[in-house]
Amino acid sequence: MPREEFRVNGEALEQKPLVLVVDDDPDMQSLIIGALSRAGTTCVGASSVEEALTAMQTQKISLTVLDWGLDRSGVEVLTVARELYPSMPVVVISGMPLEVRTDAVVNKADAFLSKPFSATVLAGQVMQLIERTRQAPAILLPQRPEDVLSLQEVQSIYIRHVVQLLEGNKSRAAEALGIHRHTISTSFKG
Fold first, then answer.
1. Alpha carbon 153 to chain centroid distance?
2. Strands 18-22 and 63-67: what pairing?
3. Residue 142 lies in a domain
4. Which domain holds residue 90?
5. Which of 114, 117, 133, 162 is the most exposed place for a label (fewest CB within 10 A)?
6. In CATH, what number is assigned to the domain containing residue 82?
7. 37-73 burial, b if ≥16 CB within 10 A, otherwise e?
8. Global pTM value
């Protein structure tokens, strides 16, 4: 099922963020997915380390909410997340009495929430991390084979970004890039 796109003035900007929710408690997973869906994300659930790893390898995940106390250690999921998506935020959650926060931070989690937590607080944290990721400059170098773009796609993305930086002035963008204005207009068709 394709994800919906955000639109501004009828133009597609990007797809809704896809959040992976990893929790072996079906009620907790359902609660989290419901809260994040209401906040504007699309979610996919996983109940085990293996399901989480499969989801990360087969889908483009924007953020992961990771319960630390799974069938195996949550650190396995976090390690693979860092390998596949180095800049993807991971929010670790746990109801374990141990000091999981330290383990999570040492293993490069972006945030930590103790169970029980407010669904509103979790949704706020997730949306804040997604927004921060969106505002970070895009890395042009692909991290996985399926992320490779054609040079024409890269050129189009770059041109659109320059036009946006120059407040929509295509003539100024053409001048700044040293290309014809028609090339700018072509990047907006399709």
1. 20
2. parallel
3. no
4. 5-135
5. 114
6. 3.40.50.2300
7. eebebbbbbbbebebbbebbeeeebbbbbbbbbbeee
8. 0.67
